[in-house]
Amino acid sequence: MRVTWSAGTTLTFRLDPEDEITGQASDEYPIKLATNSCSIGGVPGDAHPDLYAVASWTIVAPWTRRRITFDRAVSAELAQALHDGWGIEAGPVGAQPRRPGARLAISYSGGADSVAAATIFPEAPFVHFRRVAHPRVPNRWPHYRSDVLAKLAARTGRELSTVTSDLEYTLAEPRPGYPEHHAVAAGALLLADRLDLGGLGFGYEMGSRWLGGGRYLWRFTPDNPMWAPHGRWGRLFAAAGVHIVLPVGGVSEAVTMRLALGSPLREQVRWCLRGTDGPCRNCGKCLYKELIQAAVERRPLDTPITADRPVARKYLKKPPYGGQEMIQYGLARVPGIENTLFAPALDYFDVSEESTSWLDRCYPPALEEIPERWRAQAAAFMEENVGLMTEPEVRRVESWGSA
Ligand SMILES: [Zn+2]
Fold first, then answer.
1. CA 234 – ligand 1 centroid, Å
2. Separation of CA 190 and ligand 1 centre (Å)
3. Which of 26, 67, 213, 386 is in Cβ range 3.0-4.6 Å of 207 for a Cys bridge?
4. Rounded to the nearest whole angstrom, what is the distance from the C-alpha of residue 65 to the centroid of ligand 1?
5. Given this model, what pLDDT does residue 276 score?
C-alpha cells in the first residue's frame, strides 16, 4: 500500500500487488473497497507524520497485506507498532516520535454514550466527525442527517472542531461506513498537534469494550483488539501520542443513557441518524434505544414499530442479539414488556432485576486502563454518580458469553 496526502487533507492510496479490495475490519466484519481517495476538511495542512500515518491506517488497514509506504518518514516507534500489531512493514522511517500533548478531546457523535463520556470531562473540547458527499461516489444513503447532528454538536457550548469527510465512501459494502471504527478519529488525529492532544475519548461503553457487543463476538473480551490499551490499535494510537481513552468503558448503555439524560447536554442528545426535529422513532436504533430509555425511566415501551416490521423481526428469532445485555436489562425492567414486540425474546432468557443489576454499576478494571492523567477524574465521577461493581458483579462481566 502506498499512501499520499496532498495539501495535507486529501488522501490517495494505491494498492500493491499483494493487496486486495476485499478485507475485514478489526472486528472481522467483511468489507469491500469502493474507491481509493478521500478528503478530510477542518484540519490544518500539516501535522506530525505519525499522525498522518495513523489517520491513513484507519482507512487503509483492511486492504493492506504486507507493507505500507508513506509519503513522509514516520518514527521507528510508529513503524514498530504497525509491525507488532499487524505484521506490516512500514516506512520510510526517520522521524522523531510525537510527544503526547496535554489535553483530552472527546470524539463527539451526540449519541447517549458520547454525551455521557463528555459529561465526565466538562472541560474537554469536542471533535465531531461529519459525513459529506464524495465527489465520485453516489450517495445511496441520503436519509443520514449528518447536518442535523453537526448543528446539535454546535449547540453544546463546548469548544468544538467539526471535521468533514467523505472517507466513509471508500467502502462499497456494507454501505458508506468507517473502514475501521477508528476512522472516526482520522480528523481528530490530524488536529492533535493544534489542539495539543494527548488523549482522545470515545463513547464506547462496556458492551463494546468488554462484552464483545455490537457486531463482534458475544464473549468477555479483555484483549479487545480495537479498544484495549494493550491491543494493537491502543498501542498504535499511543505511539502517535494520542491515547485511546474510554471514559464510559466500564458502564452499560443503561448507565450512559441515564447519565446523558441527566446531563447539561441533554437537549443535544441524538442517537438517531435520520430524524430532523427529533429521533425518527422508526429505525432499529430508535427501537433499541427506546427499550433502554423505557427501562431507565421505568415506564412502558413507547414505539410506533410493530412486530411485523423488519427492524423488529430479529427479536422473534433466537439470540444472540446485538447489545444482548441491554435486551435482557430491558426485558427485566420495562412494565408490560410481555405485551410488546419484545415478548418472544422473553422465552429465551430468565431475567430479573437482580440478575441484571450489575448493568447499573461500573466495572473497575475499565477505570484502571484510563491513562493516569485522566483516571482520577473519571473514577471520582463513577464513584459519585454510578457506583462500582461488587466482586460477584465483576464475575458477571468476566463470565459473559461462557455457558
Ligand atoms: Zn431513528
1. 31
2. 31
3. 213
4. 37
5. 83
